[in-house]
Amino acid sequence: MDDRYMSKLSPTIDFWAGLYLVIIAVLSVFGNMAVLISAARRISLLKAPELLTVNLAITDIGMALSMYPLSIASAFNHAWVGGDISCLYYGLMGMIFSITSIMTLAVMGLVRYLVTGSPPKTGIKFHRRTVSIVISGIWLYAGLWALFPLLGWGSYGPEPFGLACSVDWTGYGKSLNHSTFIMTLSILCTFLPCLVIVFTYFGIAWKLHRAYQSIHSNDFQYGNIEKKITLMAVSISIGFLIAWIPYVVVSFWSMFHSEDQGLMNPFITLLPCLFAKSSTVYNPFIYLIFRRSSWHELLRLQRLVFCCSHHGSMPAEEAKVEGEMVKASDCTIFGDGIDTTCEGSIGAPGGQRGAATMTVG
């Protein structure tokens, strides 16, 4: 096996890193699923800016499902699994989801800045069609940057510790091709979005400060809602920046000190990478804090998984008896033995399947 794909860490560190990623993956999937289920339950009531939060949940769960299993397998294997092909795949997915996340947060900041402080009837309004087009543009933008290394501009490569792949930061300075790609990528996909996030939320804070000084008594409710939504967006953005800044710092150190890679302990390069992956957990739980209905959805999802797996393995007659005993529970089994909270999990007579009847707590 290529030495670049061999872990530079001890088997013990690899094991704990893999266990950490398992926990992060599970929390990310369940947390973001709760956000998506909550959004799906009230799809007709979603405001246009809320689609950005939904998009953020999609990117987080996409990263958890498409990337973390490969990282976990590599950590427990004490070497990267799959060689060059899986490394390209991992780098591609990482580029798409990370750029989509930061661009979504930047657009979210702009939207909140334009909306904050404006009266609900006369202020700036964003239609769902407009936001949907912007979200599509974000995905195309991220996909384009992810394809550049495959087309010859820049490249993907293994991380210094050997258990992950990303942009080959060490290629900076070795050729004009790598230097121009990394510098352009850093400016357009890191620095500018971060500046937009920082300055828009400073602007929001100033607008709220001025608005609350002159707010009328009949606008208190609107002001509280505005403050709550803005705090949620600020918290999500700050969490993302805090999670990714250490990784960016180490990556830029690698850019300008490619000859000194051996001087940095591989464990030091591993920590920022693991910390950055935790960003997929922050977003849904911040959202859950500000939207209690989503928290109930998360608990209901947990009960649903247990309940469906339990009743799915029971004979129809036993399920019928069980249903009479748990009529008040979240997983109701009706007289014909069909679990209507588990869509398609238990076949109904005649080949039909039960319909989902989840409700927000």
Structure summarized in a few sentences:
The protein has helices spanning 11-41, 50-66, 68-77, 83-115, 128-151, 176-213, 220-256, 266-277, 279-290, 292-312, 316-325; strands at 156-158, 165-167. With 361 residues, it is an all-alpha fold.
Question: Could you walk me through the main structural features you see in this protein, from its secondary elements to its overall organization?
Answer:
It is a single chain. This protein has 361 residues and is mostly helical. It contains eleven helices and two strands; from the N terminus they run H-H-H-H-H-E-E-H-H-H-H-H-H. It has helices at residues 11-41, 50-66, 68-77, 83-115, 128-151, 176-213, 220-256, 266-277, 279-290, 292-312, 316-325, and strands spanning 156-158, 165-167. A two-stranded antiparallel sheet has the order 1-2. Helix 1 runs antiparallel to helix 2 (50-66). The longest helix is centred in the middle third of the chain and has 38 residues, at 176-213. The termini are far apart.
β-strand number: 2
**Main β-sheet, spatial strand arrangement:** 1-2
* CATH topology descriptor of the largest domain: Rhopdopsin 7-helix transmembrane proteins
Radius of gyration: 24 Å
The CATH class label of the largest domain is: Mainly Alpha
* Uncertain parts: 316-361
Helix/strand/pairing category? mainly alpha
CATH superfamily of the largest domain: Rhodopsin 7-helix transmembrane proteins
**Helicity, in percent?**
55-70%
The total domain count is 2
